[in-house]
Amino acid sequence: MTEAVSRSVYFVSESTGITAEAYGQSLLSQFGDTKFIKRYTPFINTREKAQALASELGHRAEAEGQQAIVFATMVDEEINSILKQAQCHYFELFDRFMPELIEATGLQPTRKSGISHGLVNLDNYEARIDTINYALSNDDGMRLNKFDKADVILVGVSRSGKTPTCLYLALHFGMRAANYPITEEDFERGELPDELLKQSAKVFALTIEPERLAAIRELRRPESDYATLRRCYKEVQMAQDMFHRYGFTVLDSTTHSIEELASLIKKSL
Amino acid sequence: MTEAVSRSVYFVSESTGITAEAYGQSLLSQFGDTKFIKRYTPFINTREKAQALASELGHRAEAEGQQAIVFATMVDEEINSILKQAQCHYFELFDRFMPELIEATGLQPTRKSGISHGLVNLDNYEARIDTINYALSNDDGMRLNKFDKADVILVGVSRSGKTPTCLYLALHFGMRAANYPITEEDFERGELPDELLKQSAKVFALTIEPERLAAIRELRRPESDYATLRRCYKEVQMAQDMFHRYGFTVLDSTTHSIEELASLIKKSL
Which CATH number fits domain B6-105: 2.60.120, 1.10.10, 3.40.50, 3.30.60? Predict the structure, then answer.
């Protein structure tokens, strides 16, 4: 096996470059030990910018003694062809899949850029912004009367991962995600509020290992009772008893990333 | 040209399916008029699940008289080969790019799934969660003393798009993004706070068309003075004068989506 060397990587697009980065990172994640030096170059949307980038790639290939790897999504054929001829290993999404996709669909592509992440459909876009605002304003369980508007409601103890997961559901999937933090008062009553239980079909419960929870809480409020392992253990245990009693679907944020939690929730609905 | 018919599309993965969805959506966005019925099937991570999905694809092809389009990222060769033989138009990311990428890098892939969006590197993951918490707790300009910890600070009038853009920067790019809403008081003083100006190299200003701003504010507080076109026009004008005076980079949230704003900001740093 050869020694791990560093490789230059570019994510290139006429628009945001979000797709180029997503598929490039996914492919690179398969080469664990290699050090990739990543450069992000969105908005390469004129011949001049493409030529400047091609020239940069040429210089880099000479200076580094090897060609950079370029992940790109280029809709404009002329700009694409400039980069295709540059000194680099060129991986372009549309080139690779379009011919076959045209054959499969029997349709012709529009070849317009910025459609997937731009302001193309204003109504859709405003609906997405609205979901983000919904997640932010229903983040603390204080507006129980808005729960009927939710697509999904996450419940869990403080710092179990509800907020980041809600934001991901809103930003990435356009879902109206509320959350309800279980409080001391709920534990004392031994019950969750009626407004929440009425929506129990939409509820997903998050659990977390007490050790991990204590570490997260310690960062937030060092040396507080709130962050003690004893208290975390007790809260997690009582919460799990409740989840079980109400028959909620329970997901574990100790072993799942927010993307995984969000994907599991989206899949389950 | 043939009439637009609906087509079934699947996003498939052993893990979250986020990459499969991103590249599939990007390709489909090039076929504007066609109606695609999209199904999201993450966590196809066993032979049994793959066989069940292959069988579903077979039934669908029969029922719909045409094969579904499948965008997939399948790391496991055995699972991949089950789907590859299913009755569908199969577009798989790794198959398509890996052989050439192996040649370009001279390295062998690990063929492990869930690396790009899973909990693989806990330190990295916690750093990302930390950026989300940072964005949330620095969302209202109330903690000026934390601005030195920011990677970027967005300024603009209320509802100009600062919060969703900050959250996107945090969630997608892992950047510590704070924001400062310009208040009535700032306009009266004719100045922004020193704590902000000290960090002016990190500041990006958001502007927005007054008509659009008024419409957004009207949704939030109907029939308020805050939502009048007169007031929006005045605030935007005064804010732009300030941005110009301080030499801030100004981005327009009327014409750019939050993804585009975030990409422009990331590129500029």
Answer: 3.40.50
pTM for the full model? 0.78
Query: Any idea which architecture A122-268 has in CATH?
Result: 3-Layer(aba) Sandwich (3.40)
Q: DSSP assignment, residue A121?
A: -
Amino acid sitting at position B56: E
3-state secondary structure of A253: coil
Q: Which residues, in sequence order, are bridge partners of residue B35?
A: B6
**CA-to-CA distance for B238 and B16, rounded, in angstroms?**
45
Q: In chain B, what residues touch A168 (CB-CB under 8 Å)?
A: 171
CATH 3.40.50: which residues of chain B?
6-105, 122-268
ipTM above threshold 0.90: no
Going A223 to A225 to A230 to A231, the CA torsion angle's sign is negative
* Option in B16, B93, B260 nearest A117 (CB): B260
* From B27, B93, B161, residue closest to A26, measured CB to CB: B93
Coil, strand or helix: which one is B145? helix
Q: Looking at residue B1, what is its pLDDT?
A: 42
Residues of A with Cβ-Cβ distance to B16 under 8 angstroms:
257, 259-260, 262-263
Tens digit of each residue's pLDDT (9 = 90 or more) over B95-118: 899 999 998 888 888 767 666 676
